[in-house]
Amino acid sequence: MGPAHPRVPHGHRPLDGARAVRNLPDYPWSPQLNAEPADQIRLLDVQALDVRLSQLAHKRTSLPEHAEVDSLTKDLSQQRDLLVAAQTQASDAAREQAKAEQDVDQVRQRAARDQQRLDSGAGMSPRDLANLQSEVVSLAKRQADLEDVVLEVMERLEAAQERVGELTERVSALEAKLADATSRRDAATGELDAETARITKERELVAASLPADLVALYEKIRAKQGGVGAARLYQRRCEGCRLELDMAEVNEIKAAAANRVVRHDNCGRILVRTADSGI
């Protein structure tokens, strides 16, 4: 690798076919690189593998199963919350019913005792008997009122229990759907991860066989140019930015040695020359 060239003054082209990247402040002047034509062509293999890895990463994040799992998880969470609320209502109603029935039983027992005393009338004055009879009547009304409360609570408990049953079925159905969607998602991501690992290994092997400075330049450009650091020059057109080279650029590349690493003035990508470059 030769020494770094000074920055070329505005309006002048670099000498010896070196490719300056004009009007792109993100690309500082870089030293000229030389690499065997075969290595430059193999750099396109690295680029193709990187494109495939990007495609796999996008496909992995875009799997429809992800959205399905997220939607089902949200629905399941909502239904579980509703189920807990319904179970709480049912539990509260059950306790309320037990308390109301206990109150009815206490009133019933007291009314039964008073009725026995009233029926015997032993040792009681007429006034006491009248008071006791009034209490028996009052207790009968109280018992009837409490029994109405018990019926009302029983109706609420039955409705709450039905709601619990419905929500339990919904939750069970959603859990089954979520388990299925999760299994399908995991299977799909597993296949993509396996292919990604295989291609990553292949990419590492190919990149390791190339000159380190060539790979370093490629990586730098790729990071700034949307994942594409090297492109084939096909019929005088850069396959990276899809623009056709002007004649001045074509003549520069023609004049450059076969092992010179050239870059497109427009996008800054490494241009790889092949038999189909049209120059």
From TrEMBL:
Compositionally biased intervals (Basic and acidic residues): 93-117
Domain named CT398-like coiled coil hairpin: residues: 46-226
Domain of life: Bacteria
Region Disordered, annotated ranges: 87-127
UniProt cross-references to Pfam families, sorted A to Z: CT398_CC (PF24481), Zn_ribbon_9 (PF02591)
Database matches in InterPro entries: CT398_CC_hairpin, Oxidative_Scav/Glycosyltrans, Zf-RING_7
Coiled-coil positions: none
Domain C4-type zinc ribbon: 237-271
Listed name of the protein: Uncharacterized protein
Organism name: Streptomyces globosus
Lineage: Bacteria, Bacillati, Actinomycetota, Actinomycetes, Kitasatosporales
